[in-house]
Amino acid sequence: MMAPFAHDSSGTPYDASTLTGHQQAVLALWPEFQAAAAMRWTSLDQVVRAIFHDRTGLADLPDDEADQLEALLKTAITRLHMVAPARRRPTLSRNCGRGSA
Q1: Nearest CA to 58 among 37, 38, 77, 44?
Q2: Mind giving me the DSSP string for 14-68?
Q3: Which one has a higher pLDDT value, 90 or 72?
Q4: Per residue in 19-47, pLDDT tens?
Q5: CA-to-CA distance for 35 and 26, rounded, in angstroms?
Q6: Three-class SS of residue 71?
């Protein structure tokens, strides 16, 4: 199971067969998180390094930390979906409702 747009720190797509089941669960969530956050400017390994300072990337996460990251991503995805409608709502013009001159 290879998730699109998920690459290791060298830029190579992950080989999911080399990851534990817990790491694969994180990898499977990554595209949904990227879509919810509307971001492509960072990699999964960069996020792992930012959150778990002593880890080099997803393949370096022990299962308990992979579980923590999976929970964080799920929470973030849910919250991002909750605020997405507010971000997409068009702003009204200042002249809205006033007659044109």
Answers
A1: 44
A2: P-GGGS-HHHHHHHHHHHHHHHHHT--SS-HHHHHHHHSTT--SGGG--HHHHHH
A3: 72
A4: 999 999 999 998 888 888 877 778 888 88
A5: 15
A6: helix
